[in-house]
Structures
1.
Amino acid sequence: MLIYFAKFLQHYVTGFNVFQYTTFRAIMAALTALLFCLWLGPWTIRKLTELKAGQPIRSDGPQTHLIKTGTPTMGGTLILTAITISTLLWCKLSNHYVWILLGVTLFTGALGFYDDWRKVVYKDPNGVSAKFKMIWQSSVALIAAFAIFYLAKSNAYEIIVFPFFQQFNLPFGVLGFIVLSYLTIVGASNAVNLTDGLDGLAAFPVVLVAGGLAIFAYVSGHATFADYLKLPYIAGANEVTIFCCAICGACLGFLWFNAAPAQVFMGDVGALALGAALGTVAVILRQELVLGIMGGLFVAEALSVIAQVSWYKRTKKRIFLMAPIHHHFEQKGWHETQVVIRFWIITIVLVLIGLSSLKLR
């Protein structure tokens, strides 16, 4: 929004020309979201406490977590508000990718809000049914996938791009694109949600992955850079950079209050929405496989649950002491902060590997 005012004002003050630069607006988007969360964080926590929006703790989880009972949840509303305001202020609102990303984020956030609300009001740690959640997520993902494909101005959406391979692009058409997009958006949404089980465990990896995708977005939206690095050129993808930076700033601001011991939890309203947002960014940029690398922590968390449930149904035995996998390491004697920081380190390494695919082809 501000770019339009700056474009008018630069006729009188040339310094306003800086608003035309994606890098400037990306930095400002991150700072805006960060400062918004730091400013409204204490107020949000007080209001959630007054509303008795305490997190019910699952009885079948680690017993050390019972002390967290009553900690305010639904803090993801702060994150989503910061992302939305920052994006609207610093992005070009004529860019259709901006509206697709905001739509996916807010509609998936609405599902998470309803899920958290049921947990808080009815003191039910299970929230909404898995069937209801899947129908909602599927609807959002499919609408987003069709919108991205049919609004595209590039044939990049008819191929799947493999990282580390310069000319290994596999054509697969509209049906393949829709299926891959669906799996990416829904899978990322649920994977981040499963990861959000310890203080700060999900927030910082989301920052790291969003930051990595921001670099891909900047390169993909620049014709010269995209051609040099043999990436598909996505016209308008530079605005996705700003959205990713807004995610980084909002999650960093939230982490200030979510670091152990957490004053507030993200809740499904934040985790489901952030995961879906990352998945949609990857789809827009044609970097679904890179998301799988950089978000390897989220993938591992999701696979640990799938493997645990599948194996237990078949053999009545468990692969892990407890799933998701972060609870397994807690059961093995790791302190919660050890699990969190070590998983952060792993994510840093994975993001660097993903970024290396920009050049190593």
2.
Amino acid sequence: MLIGVPKESKVHEYRIGLVPMSVSELTYAGHEVIVETGAGCGAGLTDECYIKAGARIASGADEIFSKADMIIKVKEPLADECKKLREGQVLFTYLHLAPDEAQTRALLESGAICIAYETVTNPQGSLPLLTPMSEIAGRLSPQVGSVALQKNSGGSGILLAGALGVPAADVVVLGGGVAGSNAAMIALGMGASVTVVDCSAMVLASLSSRFGPRLRTIFSTHEGIAKIIQNADLVIGTVLIPGATAPRLLTADMIRSMKDGAVFVDVSIDQGGCSETSRATTYSDPTYIVDGVVHYCVSNMPGAVARTSAFSLNNMTLPFIKALADKGYLQAFAEDPFLRKGLNVYRGDLTIEAVAFAHGLDYTSAEMSLGLN
């Protein structure tokens, strides 16, 4: 199979779909890999690294899209990239279709086979290809939140760790999953006073066991969230419904009730955000202020630590990429129901129900589209 890796075109996105180690594995297995020139530079990976791994360097994205049987990316294709996709071509990347009707329709029109990292599952029911980026985004969130709290960034001028005789900042983490638990870990390590809110007693018990009395936990209710964020200096939203639009846990009135200069970091923004006041931003202009609250809603947070992110992501995606390349997508889907969960668009069919519901579009099961029923 001919596998293509274009340079990411999203603003300030420095990750790359394949690192040289992955290219070497694929070429050793007999596949061809073409990588757009300069695609790995943001992660410190030169064209020479890819040539040594067995890849061929393409002069531009047009060659990648016109020749490759399978496209490996990190972020969702932008509008011009959607137009370059061919019927029957495989696209494997993060898609986050639920909040993005325009992309959904463009992919349906392309006739391509579009597989989303974020909806691939495993036997334990978790999301193995979302986990590494959730982990990194969670770890970044207190870091970027602490900068946004600085007075020069529009925040209240509070240091997370406090100082001698001055209390630490109050941090509230909404959601105790992968991103939330990692956010709590880093915030505690930075010296903040941390509370995690979750709707699962089992998750809260696990976090309490892991972090001990340093961490406060609260069961998630509308009233409980409304009350606790009023005194928070930093709120980090990490809630997720796989494949679906993120639940709006924070209303505009709740945001209005927060302290002036408080900060809200929305890690859920890829799936639409968990506040009524959320809108996606980029690293070029990462924050905005609503009712005195600084909002940080960068939709590709792990892109800032591109080298760590690219290698971490490839550790998880490579087995699935190899299966698709070695067996072809039809056999790979037939044999692996967990990879099949990642299929979002198949030759004009929308194969993920939550996205169809979000946009009022027709839904066809992956099994039906693939003829596996």
3.
Amino acid sequence: MRVSASTTQIHVLSGDDWALFRDIRLRALADAPAAFGANLPEAQSRTEQQWRNRISQRTQFVAVTEQGTVGTVAGAVDTDRNSVHLFSMWVDPRVRGTGIADQLVQTVVAWAAANGHTTIHLEVTEHNSRAERLYARNGFTRTGRIGTISRDDPRAEFEMTRTISETPS
């Protein structure tokens, strides 16, 4: 499949887009279950209202090409840290390596900057070197903070951060 990031459109989802959000999230969980704190069976059991509620708690972006919806990422304001949290990043394996992941990350960074935020942070599951390279390429560095995905999921994840005014090297 030939896809170019230059022909990719990024859209923000609303509550009325809950079915599209559900579909891409289920695809992400089926493709890369180790990359997320959620699991496929739990996500499949969510109701329409639960999907709508999830969208209302974040700004959810999707990447769309002529092949359909091929990627997603979320951003949310973390008021406790006065920062934006980038999370739920996923790109369809058929279009990885085309620049769409970079475009999604840059979209969240631009959204955060446009809303007056100066820092952005994220967590990367240990051993997800491809994701770490993506984030490093976009100006993120490890902070040294390491935690677990959740109480029920002891896999390690580490934090990365970026000052939004910085230009990635």
4.
Amino acid sequence: MAFPALFAAAVLMSQTTNVTGVVTFERDGLPFYFMQDDSGVNWRVSRPESPEAAVGDRITVTGEREQSVKHRISTKALSVIGKAPGGPPPPKEVTLAELFANIMPFGNSEWYGGMFTTEGLLRDINRRQNTTQLLVGEDDNCIQVEMPWALEDSLPSKLVLGARVRVTGALAYTSIENFEEQVFGRIENIELIPISGEDVKVVRRAPKPPYWTTRRVLTVIASCGAVSLVLLVWVVTLRCMVRRRSRELADSIRQRETTRIEADASRRERLRLAADLHDGFQQYLAGAMFRLKAARNYLPKDAEKSREQLDKVHDALQHTQNGLRTTLWAMNEESEGPESLKALFSFVARRMAHWEGIVTIVSEGEERTVARHFCGSLLLIMQEAVGNAIRHGAAKHVEVRVSFREKDIELVINDDGCGFDVGAALETGHYGLSTMERRINELGGEMKIESRPGAGTTVRFSIPA
């Protein structure tokens, strides 16, 4: 292929570059601008301390061009000439299929840094500390949209999973460029970066099923009755619990400081490991899947057996990536969340946008301190059970009940979904059920499943503690 040779020849050494053009992208908090020069080429320039530039300003940038086929400048000097006549060039409107066709599998330096408008279905919402990531897709093509919404910010009411959205932003992607191994341009991540929240608009609302069904009303009544019964039992046993608690309090105070120091060290190590896995192994998996898909497209039409084998490898990589993503999710949530098991569950439920209005967290009994690795395993089990109820059972309400009993902890996930044949699922080796059973067995506990088609599902876990 001629591409690596051309790329190596183009970037054998960095060189001082001077370009003049119009700022097309600027967002507070990001260390770069995008601009379009007078010949129509898009450039990514690092943001200097001064002067500040805004969208529509005409600027001149002097700096060192990075060793990359992408047009990127490490800015040494920047001057603002004034406002460009007519303002910045308008964004180019494309479909997701057209966008992927033009940048896969080795990128497109003419499109990198350009302003584009596209549409797709909102498939996922991932809340971060300072940003919110939207996954927008059409058919097999999905792109990440990096929004400037912090975790405490409220999302637009219409922005829910299943809505069709129209997004305008700067196109960016990560690619591998290794001179020693002669590997250039392999795509790792594709994203649109809007300038503000106004650049994402809902053009068609998600279909919304009726909320109050007969089953849901009965579930609420039953839950209220259960809570009332728990309160009655709690009042009767309060005196015994207070006496026992007073004896345990002195030992607990001595142990708490030691536990806190160990927990802080463990939390830092988990976050470091999660970051290493996400930035390393997770990205290589994504790159491998992109290359595998590209290799499949290069096969001749009659290579069906080879295509089948590549599809199986792709599915295996996808399964591995999903498992790694689930583990990284639990490590981050466990490390960032509160110490209390119930509060941790509630914290996680609030961060899962597609659980809102569906998942209810209930706690019974006097909560006691639980080891962090124990919390992490229960968090993975709870996520898998709730995910199965929503994804496979189409549940409209899921109740997660944590009961702190004298000799054990009971975790019950009850949903009003379509239910299933438990015996048939266990015989076929359902991966989610086997994973939950393996995790609970590692904790020395037991799992019981009650379900039948059309009657919802109850999954009960009992763990000595």
